[in-house]
């Protein structure tokens, strides 16, 4: 019996990954990459939405601060008998404010806030001490004539609602105007027009794009 040679060739042991193992690994990596991309995308979207909301909030806060300053310097209607000093009608707010500057006499200025094509803007006329010029500025503001360039305060505004509070009444009224001794009808009662107290409060409700509820603020009219 012949002995087999011990030098018989032996196949070396194969190492590495099989094709199936590589496919499984690639599939797992692809799934992880997709999940990671979706998570990153959601974070980026949330951050963009938060940034936009913060910009909206900052913009409306600055707009309210400007309106508050104008309302605080509203002219007392007693000083302008027979003339309107505030009109809050529709999407337009027009008022007459007192301007105080160093080394200058006090002057009067017409300021108008308007909502046009989703943008809340503010425009102001030149301060004056002439009643004729003041009357012309008021007519221009009420007629939406832009004598001076308007400054955009807030964009993406869907609606602007205003209510006023008048002394002697028990609730807010939609819109309103202020003139010394103005005769105003009793809304919803059918009663004839009667003289009433002066306006002391203004409420603004601004509905912004992407927000469920409007942003509302109440302003005091005149110096406190």
From TrEMBL:
Keywords: Cell inner membrane, Cell membrane, Membrane, Methylation, Transmembrane, Transmembrane helix. It comes from the Bacteria. Its main location: membrane. Residues 179-194 have a biased composition (Low complexity). PANTHER family: TYPE II SECRETION SYSTEM PROTEIN J, TYPE II SECRETION SYSTEM PROTEIN J-RELATED. This is Prepilin-type N-terminal cleavage/methylation domain-containing protein. It is a single-pass membrane protein. It is found in: Cell inner membrane. Coiled coil: none annotated. The keyword Transmembrane helix applies. InterPro entries: N_methyl_site, Pilin-like, T2SS_protein_J. The chain crosses the membrane at residues 16-37. Pfam families: N_methyl. Residues 174-196 are annotated as: Disordered.
């Amino acid at each position: 019996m012949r002995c087999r040679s011990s030098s018989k060739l032996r196949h070396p042991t194969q190492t590495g990954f099989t094709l199936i193992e590589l496919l499984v690994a690639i599939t797992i990596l692809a799934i992880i990459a997709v999940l990671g991309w979706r998570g990153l995308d959601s974070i980026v979207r949330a951050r963009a939405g938060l940034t936009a909301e913060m910009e909206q909030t900052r913009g409306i806060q600055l707009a309210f601060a400007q309106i508050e300053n104008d309302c605080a310097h509203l002219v007392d209607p007693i000083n302008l008998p027979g003339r309107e000093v505030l009109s809050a009608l529709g999407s337009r707010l027009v008022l007459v404010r007192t301007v105080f500057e160093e080394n200058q006499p006090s002057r009067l200025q017409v300021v108008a806030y308007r909502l046009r094509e989703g943008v809340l803007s503010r425009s102001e006329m030149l301060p004056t001490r002439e009643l004729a010029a003041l009357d012309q500025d008021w007519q221009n503001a009420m007629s939406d004539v832009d004598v001076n360039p308007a400054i955009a305060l807030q964009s993406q505004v869907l609606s602007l609602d205003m209510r006023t509070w008048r002394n002697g009444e028990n609730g807010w009224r939609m819109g309103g105007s202020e003139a010394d001794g103005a005769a105003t009808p009793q809304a919803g009662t059918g009663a004839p027009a009667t003289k009433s107290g002066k306006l002391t409060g203004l409420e603004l409700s601004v509905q912004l794009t992407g927000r469920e509820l409007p942003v509302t603020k109440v302003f005091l009219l005149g110096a406190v």
